[in-house]
Amino acid sequence: MRSEEQAIEIFTADQLAELLGVNRKTIYEAASRGEIPHRRLGRRLIFERGSVLRWLRQDAPSEENTDER
User: Fold this and answer.
1) Can you say how many angstroms the Cα of residue 61 is from the centroid of all Cα atoms in its chain?
2) Exposed/middle/buried for 16, CB within 10 Å: 0-12, 13-18, 19+?
């Protein structure tokens, strides 16, 4: 198998919600606002692991900026 043909890992909304520790509704709402990368397959939303990981890493606040007390 060539490197560009590597298997793509796909999550359902339920699987992604479990992975991120949030409610499924939160995933659907974020997707509807265009905040989280996804594709629509019929009536279902699917999420590609690599895209979601890149999304999580982008514009992540540094630890020193998270405590604003």
Assistant:
1) 17
2) buried
Q: For residues 44 and 12, is the Cβ–Cβ distance under 8 A?
A: yes
Find the Cα–Cα–Cα–Cα dihedral 24, 29, 30, 36, rounded to 10°: 70
Q: What is the pLDDT of residues 32-59, one digit of tens each?
A: 999 999 999 999 999 999 999 999 999 7
> Could you tell me the pTM of the whole model?
0.72
Answer whether 5's CB lies under 8 Å from 21's CB: no
Check if the beta carbon of residue 10 is closer than 8 Å to that of residue 49.
Answer: yes
Place of tokens 């890493």: 57
**With bands split at pLDDT 50, 70 and 90, how would you rate the model's confidence at 69?**
very low
